[in-house]
Design brief:
The protein is built from 13 helices and nine strands. With 383 residues, the protein is α+β, with helices and mostly antiparallel strands. The protein has a domain at 62-244 and 258-279 and 328-379: Cytochrome P450 (Cytochrome p450, Orthogonal Bundle), CATH 1.10.630. A hairpin with a 2-residue loop joins strand 5 and strand 6 (294-296). Bound molecules: protoporphyrin IX containing FE (HEM).
Length: 383
């Protein structure tokens, strides 16, 4: 008999079922030090919230703002300007601009683009990875050829992001970043429409002279979309296969039915909580601090188990039950505080558009190895 694979905090996202392990941590050690990995681990909703709100906890180690292996390369240039990878006043300014531009994109437009691109997908992997990136590229205002090439390159660029990136990953990311900068740079000056045009206008209005950080963050929008949305699309299709398609609510005479699509939107929102596509993130302690009453020294690294916090009974009643349409759920999948994901509505709308259109029922063959994303490998007849 084969032994079940052991779960460790860092390996949990690709484990067949990490949830009993998370539940044990939430119950027995919602915040504590993990001697094996050397990391502090926050699993409970209160501890995760506390760390995400603590200004002493940063997104990068202060002594290494850019990973050494990509420093001085085009990948390092992009990485060092990403709102995702920086803290402080410049991050807050750039984040506001991104939030304003992304906030003006309507759900209807994203769903329509996702439906259109789903119709052209050739297999399950294409549906998971390429469709979301093509939707994002369309929103940015990039045309077919540029969008297709950017989609191919972004898969290599994201290899430098995880803490586990190897020298080979970093070299591939550097080559991809150089080409992405050349490919997308001219679009900043083209005066075009789409999100790129909007971001250029908003950046100029804010009195920001430099365009390099803006270009880096345009690449950031594509890279943040890539594996996170692939995971959400995959987890949504598997949940539909397991639980069946949700039925649209029928209104009573005095309470009109919810708008079409509400049931699927609620369904995707519950997938986001119940089987989080991004399962964890990290923070690095710049100054000694206290979390859950425990002193945490400067120089510590904290792993925040967002997927465990979603299933903390103190955050969500009956947390292990998949129940779309929960009233006021507390969801950590898109993070909180200064680094909260500004693409959450777009990601959800992409998954809704794909789920509404994709036909065929995939089978499930494990998960791609990833330290933070839970990306199921889908197989079987496509269409
Ligand atoms: C299911 C899909 C997605 C998930 C689960 C997800 C999750 C996250 C999480 C957890 C963070 C913050 C990490 C931290 O606090 O350490 C984040 C940040 C970010 N996400 Fe998403 N994301 C998704 C899709 C997207 C999409 C489609 C976009 C683009 C429209 C996007 C853009 C960003 C950006 C720009 C940041 C950096 C924000 C900051 O650090 O201030 N994300 N995302």
């Amino acid at each position: 008999m084969t032994q079940p694979r052991p779960v460790t905090p860092g390996m949990a996202p690709a484990h067949p079922d990490p949830y009993p392990f998370y539940a044990r941590l939430v119950a027995e050690r919602p915040f504590g030090h993990d001697a094996d990995s050397g990391l502090w681990v926050a699993a409970g909703a209160a501890a995760v919230s506390e760390v995400l709100a603590d200004p002493a906890c940063r997104v990068r180690p202060p002594a290494e703002p850019v990973p050494r292996g990509i420093l001085g390369t085009p990948a390092g240039e992009v990485f060092g300007s990403l709102v995702r990878m920086t803290d402080g006043a410049a991050q807050a300014r750039r984040k506001r601009i991104l939030g304003t531009a992304l906030g003006a994109v309507t759900e209807e437009r994203v769903v329509a683009l996702a439906v259109e691109h789903t119709g052209r997908a050739t297999d399950w992997a294409d549906l998971q990875f390429e469709v979301p990136v093509r939707v994002m590229a369309s929103l940015l205002g990039l045309d077919g050829e540029v969008s297709a090439e950017a989609g191919r390159l972004i898969g290599d660029f994201v290899r430098c992001v995880p803490a586990s990136a190897t020298a080979e990953d970093q070299a591939a990311a550097a080559v991809a970043a150089a080409r992405l900068l050349d490919l997308l740079g001219p679009h900043l000056h083209a005066g075009g429409g789409g999100l790129i045009g909007e971001l250029v206008r908003l950046t100029a209005d804010a009195g920001e002279a430099e365009t390099a950080p803006l270009l880096a963050n345009v690449i950031g929008l594509l890279s943040q979309t890539y594996d996170a949305t692939a995971a959400l699309v995959g987890n949504t299709l598997l949940a539909l296969a397991q639980h069946g398609r949700p039925e649209e609510p029928v209104g009573e005479r005095d309470t009109p039915a919810a708008p079409p699509g509400t049931a699927l939107t609620d369904f995707v929102a519950e997938v986001v909580r119940h089987d989080a596509p991004i399962q964890n993130t990290r923070r690095f302690v710049a100054e000694a601090t206290t979390v859950a009453g425990q002193p945490v020294p400067a120089g510590s690294a904290i792993l925040l188990l967002l997927a465990a916090a979603n299933r903390d009974p103190l955050a969500n009643p009956d947390p292990h039950t998949f129940r779309p349409g929960r009233a006021d759920p507390r969801v950590f999948t898109f993070s909180r505080g200064a680094h909260r994901c500004p693409g959450h509505a777009i990601a959800t709308a992409i998954a809704v558009g794909v789920a509404a259109t994709a036909t065929g029922t995939p089978s499930h063959e494990g998960h791609l190895p990833s330290p933070n994303a839970r990306i199921p490998v889908l197989k079987g007849q496509f269409r």
